[in-house]
Amino acid sequence: QVQVAESGGGLVQAGGSLRLSCVASGGTFYAMGWFRQAPGKVQEFVSSIRRSSGPTYYSESLKGRFTISRDIAKNTVYLQMNSLKSEDTAIYYCAARTTPGSYLSRTDFSSWGQGTQVTVSS
Question: Which band of pLDDT confidence, cut at 50, 70 and 90, is reported for residue 54?
Fold first, then answer.
């Protein structure tokens, strides 16, 4: 069973940037995704990427500000977040799946991290 762990969250001023990392251990991933949950709101999809070449996906509302990437050698996926807004404040979760298939919704992923807090001050 692959395990994933996020890091890189923190407090940043509006307009600033953060890069989140997600390391997979105990195996290799087929795809990884980022989700977030703001206080009082449901969890939402942010972005996802496949280990091998293939499409990356973004929430339409975040496209252009967030960029997902991967380092296969490090078994790691990154989420670069730029031009951060107060509404980006949330707990960000990384998730992984190890078998081929869809990687767009939370039910597509079987391994989840504990989450990392991102707080954007206005």
Answer: confident
